[in-house]
């Protein structure tokens, strides 16, 4: 049954993690519930900001100080508390938070079903002593470490250490078969590393079955449906993830790209702008915003963010000036041609990453060099680069599916759609707005490309 914390008519249950009052569930995001569990576990002891950061975000680089304040306020609202009264959660300025009030803990093996928290601490200390005497310390530590394995799995996944990520996720599930986030990691691995579409979907769905409040699992399903060219279901699951945890940095990272992929350019602009407020130097969100503004025909904003992007990469001022002097829609195309040449140069010098060919394919397509883009995409697929399914689901490559059989073959190769799914009704009917399509046709002209590459 897991552990249950009871206080003032409320109940926080750990499997699945959920808050109840009078037997009725109270809606809270996963991170808010995790924070509440931290406070209840400490039972009146101070929980420092650094502890919260480590528990909720691990080693991820996020601006969390404002986020934690919002999560605390949401918990207070759910409990009928507020910052003025602080009946349940006390703020200790500059240090952290502590839970006020009497907490009872119930769990499997408790004779009474309700154990006062002080007695719980005494019993736990006795258990540690017994474990030390019988050489059972490792058993106790392992029973408490599945969350650490889950955090490590996410961190390894982000760094591209897929084998290590799988090992940590498997260990977490061995220690706790209901570790929902470990199923999310396995879904991400199936999606990014193995292109195992059915396995990805079933892992995300299992995570939601265990924890209906898992914004990460709904985010995973949204990405899954983008890669399967099902825009409606992608948006349905994205909206659910945002409703559950709008402050999640993982959800925020993907939101703009999901909107961009399904052709909702205004929402993509809003999402990427918001994420840049948190991480103003992040190139991925800046690029997403450039793409969204270009697709929406907002050339002034394209130029502003192209300049910011190129400055962040250390581009020379003369190169930036030449890109910006193209004027209107041509700024975006010149920018993509600059990216294409830069990626190609780095690849040629051996300074490559696991996504070099995929990035080159996308930049080449947006520069109008379609044949070069397809060759790079084919090489990326042969080398099983994790990013290539995302490139094939990009609006530019979705458009190319209708005119280039080699692109369609690549989508079949990655397994993103079965051959029977291809037809006039699938998502390849999404097209770029006329302004961008005109710019891309202009970019395809040989004289433009030779001039761009020579001068950038």
Overview features:
64% helix, alpha+beta, 24 helices, 6-stranded antiparallel sheet, 3-stranded antiparallel sheet, 456 residues, Arc Repressor Mutant, subunit A
Would you give an account of this structure?
It contains 24 helices and 9 strands. With 456 residues, it is an alpha+beta fold. A hairpin with a 2-residue loop joins strand 2 and strand 3.
The main sheet comes to: 6 strands, antiparallel
Shape: globular
Strand order of the largest sheet: 4-3-2-1-8-9
**Overall helicity:** 55-70%
**Structural class by sheet pairing and helices:** alpha+beta
**Which stretches are poorly predicted, pLDDT < 50 over at least 5 residues?**
108-144, 419-456
Strand content: 5-15%
Q: N-to-C terminal Cα separation, in Å? A: 63 Å
Number of strands: 9
Mean pLDDT comes to: 78
Number of helices: 24
Gyration radius, in Å = 25 Å
């Amino acid at each position: 049954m897991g552990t249950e914390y009871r206080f003032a008519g409320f109940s926080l249950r750990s499997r699945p993690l959920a808050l109840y009052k009078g037997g009725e569930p109270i809606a809270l995001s996963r991170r808010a519930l995790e924070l509440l569990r931290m406070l209840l576990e400490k039972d009146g002891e101070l929980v420092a900001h650094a502890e919260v950061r480590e528990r909720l975000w691990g080693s991820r680089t996020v601006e969390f100080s404002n986020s934690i304040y919002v999560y605390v306020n949401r918990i207070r609202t759910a409990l009928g508390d507020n910052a003025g009264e602080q009946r349940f959660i006390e703020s200790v300025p500059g240090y952290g938070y502590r839970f006020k009030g009497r907490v009872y803990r119930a769990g499997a093996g408790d004779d009474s079903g309700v154990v006062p928290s002080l007695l719980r601490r005494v019993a736990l200390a006795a258990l540690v002593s017994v474990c030390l005497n019988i050489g059972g310390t490792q058993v106790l530590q392992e029973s408490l470490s599945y969350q650490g394995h889950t955090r490590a799995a996410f961190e390894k996944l982000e760094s591209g250490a897929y084998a290590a990520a799988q090992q940590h996720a498997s260990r977490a599930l061995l220690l706790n078969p209901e570790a929902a986030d470990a199923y999310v990691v396995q879904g991400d691995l199936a999606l990014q590393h193995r292109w195992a579409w059915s396995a990805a979907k079933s892992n995300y769905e299992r995570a939601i079955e265990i924890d209906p409040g898992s914004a990460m699992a709904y985010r995973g399903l949204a990405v899954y449906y983008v890669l399967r060219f099902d825009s409606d279901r992608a948006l349905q699951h994205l909206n659910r993830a945002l409703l559950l945890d709008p402050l999640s940095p993982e959800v925020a990272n993907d939101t703009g790209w999901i909107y961009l992929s399904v052709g909702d350019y205004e929402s993509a602009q809003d999402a990427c702008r918001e994420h840049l407020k948190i991480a103003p130097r992040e190139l991925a969100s800046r690029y997403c915003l450039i793409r969204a503004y270009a697709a929406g025909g907002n050339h002034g904003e394209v130029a502003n963010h192209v300049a910011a992007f190129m400055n962040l990469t250390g581009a020379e001022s003369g190169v930036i000036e030449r890109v910006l002097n193209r004027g209107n829609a041509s700024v975006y195309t010149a920018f993509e041609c600059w990216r294409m040449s830069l990626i190609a140069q780095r690849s040629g010098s051996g300074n490559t990453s696991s996504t070099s060919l995929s990035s080159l394919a996308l930049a080449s397509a947006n520069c109008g060099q379609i044949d070069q883009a397809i060759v790079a995409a084919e090489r990326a697929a042969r080398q099983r680069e994790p990013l290539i399914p995302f490139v094939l689901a990009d609006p530019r490559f979705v458009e190319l599916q209708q005119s280039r059989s080699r692109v369609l073959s690549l989508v079949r190769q990655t397994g993103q759609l079965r051959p029977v799914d291809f037809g006039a009704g699938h998502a390849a009917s999404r097209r770029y707005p006329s302004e961008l399509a005109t710019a891309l046709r202009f970019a395809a002209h040989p004289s433009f490309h030779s001039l761009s590459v020579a001068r950038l």
